[in-house]
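Students often ask why we bother predicting the structure of a whole assembly rather than each chain alone. The short answer is interfaces. A chain on its own may look different once its partners are present, and contacts between molecules only exist in the joint model. In this exercise we take two input lines together and write out one structure for the complete complex. Read the inputs first and try to guess which parts will touch.
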Amino acid sequence: MEFFHEPHIDWMGKKWYFISLTLILLVAGMASIAIKRGLTYGIDFRGGTLVYAKFAQQPNLDAIRSQLKKENLGGATIQGFGPASEHEVIIGLDVQTTTSTNALDAGKRDIVTALTGLYGTGPEGKVDFNNASPQTVAEHLIVADPLHVAWKGSDEAMRTYRELADALVNFRNAAPQSGLIGNLGDLKAVPGVTPAVLEALGKDFYLSSYAVRNTEIVGPKVGGDLRRQAVYVTLAGLGAMLVYIWFRFELIYGVAAVIATFHDVLITLGIFSLLNKEISLTVIAALLTLVGYSMNDTIVVFDRIRENVHLNKRESFYDLVNRSINQTLSRTILTSGLTFLAVLSLYLFGGEVIHGFALTLVIGVIIGTYSSIAIASPILVFFYQRVGKNRGGVRPRALEREPAAVRR
Amino acid sequence: MEKKIRTRVILIAVAIVACILGIICYPRNEQETIGFPTTWQRMKENVRSRIRMGLDLKGGTHLVLQVQVDDAVNVTVDLAQERVQDELRSRGIPATVEKKTENGRTYLLLTNIPQEKTGDLQTLVSEQFQDWDLTRRAGDPNARELSLKTSAAANIRNQALEQSKNTIRNRIDQLGVTEPTIADYGQGDYELVVQLPGVDDPTRVKDIIQSTAMLTLKIVRDGPFPTREAALASHGGILPPDTELLPGRRESASEGAATEAWYVVDRIAAVTGRDLRDAQPRPDENGRPSVNFSLTRDGAARFARVTAANIGKQLAIILDNRVVSAPVIQSQISDNGRITGSFTPQQASDLALVLRSGALPASIKYLQEMTVGPSLGADSIRHGVIASIVGLLAVMAFMLFYYHGSGINANLALFLNLLILLAALAYFGAVLTLPGIAGVILTVGMGVDSNVLIFERIREELRLGKTVGAAVAGGFDHAFLTIIDTHVTTVVSALILFTFGTGPIRGFAVTLTIGLLANLFTSVFVSRVIFDYVLSRREKGEALSI
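Now the answer. The structure tokens for the assembled complex follow.
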């Protein structure tokens, strides 16, 4: 099957549409960034504290908020995370609230104190199973010896209970519990668990109704350094591309490709601002991947232009670029479509942690494909029509010499 | 033709077998023994142990810390100040020496130097203080500034960083954390990154890493006094030469409650933490937790001499410039000692650990801390695997639908591409992170690009009326340079990403790079072999399914 059978689209004739569309996207994005006083950065760039907690029941955000206020954390942000059925919440503190240089984790400790204040500590002397390590679980089981293996010697008992504890904790950590079980009786499902084991666990453990799944604390210095580095690294990436394309093609090809790619980065950042999404470290990684991808796409078109320049020396550069785009159109659509499928799957199924990354690529694949046709190629045409005068392609001097040879 | 295909098929088969073995039973290092898996269970375990997962997948703690290397420079300047004073005295140069810190530069200010002695001072510095620069001070002809040479200061800073790294590594190893990472971080700001897999409550580890654990034993000259003022007052406001005043605590005999106390102690330590051979937590005769230490031969000789000369006096045991206890010296002690204080058993064993691992030459500031709970890691793995499989199936289904028979070819190549990627991760012990899984998915998307480029080119050649064989050859030839160009740009951006990021992002750069390199082999070489094989079996005139 085939989507396009030898298309004859006048792409270069539509350049004003492209320029308008690009300008609209750029202006909208930049306006959004300007109105919001810059991009929204993630915790890794901004500095601060994030605590990801999972609750057994739907958490009452207002109650958490007022409890945090009691701990002098009035500035904390609280937001749901992932699907509502997962009862997950991110509590965030800005770096100002946590800049104490000696105790980086002061904010985190305050948040945990607030949560314990709200959800209570367990019965006296009991350990929280939801936040216990396998080591702790094993130690308690060895003392209780519900499987009666102590007579086999302490090494054997240690091994048996350590394995059992690992299985219990793995069960707790695996889906669908995801770190939080509501009832110790649920542990029946773990192989090797007998009623005696459950009873022993019940004596020593209780179940808190929340678990801290993840914390991120970034000091102010790291954030500032990273922001600067992210800019340098993106520019370095573009610079490296420019040099490579210059080496493989010609300077103007490199310039056109780099402008197109830079355009992709700007528009993606703009869309992020419009969607109120945070720029995190993984988003920067995705942006750099996008730089590679967009270049990749541009190079395929450029490669064909170069080839056609060699093959056919009479055609105007304008027609030649159109023809090259049309020849590669099928491949362009297919590859972008397939890459889009792959990153869309990442966006839909990859989970919350990687959302920003996947979103960048979903946007980037579309923009990157668009820019090869709508930005990079018109720049080449513009250059050779207005500035270059000669027909472009590789080694213009060689090209100039050849017509003379023909005349002779 | 037949025979050429056979050698290439054998080459591919060897590659496949090597990859599979790499994933299921290739030992990562020489000590490791890992057998050929005989059961499905063993197989799963082997695969799991082959593919190293990053902190974000298996859970753990990631710390970024900064070594305050200027501490080490400060100590050097302090020591120099004493030496300068001694030397000036012995050479009869009357001058006052003060330590000054201005705009982050620490130097010694020498004032009231008589004009005729400046030459002597210059000689002294060039003979005894080669690492130092002596400069005039603006506006005061009788003053000089003595500052460390830039190269010498840089040396001290780098040494402090290296020594801190070793000390931290020792401490973490002794805690029994498996496969920790301690590495330089950032660019020249004396930062370290510490990764602790499986540690999901980092508080204790952080405290242990952070404790400077500077142990010194000094003879008490006077005290204890209840306050600093009282101590100074009893000496008429000026401490005796070569002594210093340190805070500490004294246990009142009645209830074991400790009160603040100040001690006047020798400035020069009898022994320091460097003289320690070992330190172990042991209960004392009253069953209270304490730390026993033993000294090296040098340290023991010095300690014996000092204790013998000071029987009946108190010996201050000083940790990080605080007196933790000050027992009376009953008799000569040579190579053993004990630190008591009101420790919990945990504190005693942590103290023993940090003493064993040596002192940090500089204090430490934490810049970043990230903890991933194991349950979140497990979730991420599950999500990542689902997304990969859905993405892979969607792409494969599309290739079959669009290219029919040749779609099978592309899918085989894609499958082999992923196999090589996994094997390379196992062979090199590269770390798979969540963004790394994203890299795998992206490899799927961008990997088929090579096949698409080739196939579209073959179709074009066929449209131009070429024979099937010529079209296939032409398709591969024409697409090859384009494929190289596109791969280079993507790999370059991945490599730049590698130098920029840490942990998770590096994992992404690694999988993407390996995936694309493997793709060159599968799309250009393997795909071609499959085409050649199909063509060789094809009856004359039959069309190519593409």
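Check your guess against this: Residues 391-408 of chain A have pLDDT under 50 and may be disordered.
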